[in-house]
Amino acid sequence: MLMTLAACTNKEKSDYKKVMESTDMMMLRTYLENYKDAPIEHTSAVKQRLADLTVDSTIYATFISAGDDVADRYYAAKQYVDELPNGVHIDEMKAIIAKDSAKAEKILAERAAAEAAEINAAAAEMNYGTLRERIRNSIFVRDRYHMVFVTVPDDDGKGYGMVADGLESYSFSYTAKPEDTDMIGRLSENGSLFTISVYSDCLYLSGMGKDLRYQTNPLSESDFKDQEKKLMERIKQWEKEHKEKKEN
Prior knowledge:
Layout lengths: L1 H19 L4 H10 L5 H26 L4 H14 L6 H38 L3 H5 L2 E6 L2 E5 L7 E8 L2 E8 L6 E6 L5 E6 L3 E5 L5 E7 L2 H27 L1
Antiparallel strand pairs: 1-2, 1-8, 2-3, 3-4, 4-5, 5-6, 6-7, 7-8
């Protein structure tokens, strides 16, 4: 009985040594199935070895799936080396990196630049363009009695606007950078602040009691300049009247 037990123990030790030196995951699983009563330090080590090889296999599969794409193979090889410095395929991955580094890095940089350009183009189309482009030659309308007109900002980013609200109208000033979407407007009459959000197809006013949406309505360049001229005349007149009131 003792001899049989000793023989089993010796076989377990021999098999344990073999599977820990192997990269065959089936052998590791077979060991765990055959030696459920093996010392816990052995089964724990085998389970960890199996887990490591599973991760190794998964990352290596990414490398294989890259096929002949130099940049993708290089990227997958770098990921392998970073995550598995003692991995089964480490020598192969290091060789790929050394061989393809210059060519792959150039391709990856070109792809990153193209992706960034695509994202920026999509954002510009969706958004927005520059502030000047979003404002130029447009008046923003809810209906015939409710509209907003905004002048193109000058080189310092300063501009003016007017809100027509039924029978009343309000002028305002704003300062904004070309890349801004949201601007802070200041009503000329009382200095109250509100937010103006200009998009490619609409304008929102927020902070004037409720949020209001105005649809972009393109104007001809001459009509826009005419509206801009009338607004600036109104602003100058208001500033003159305001100054006279303060002096009196």
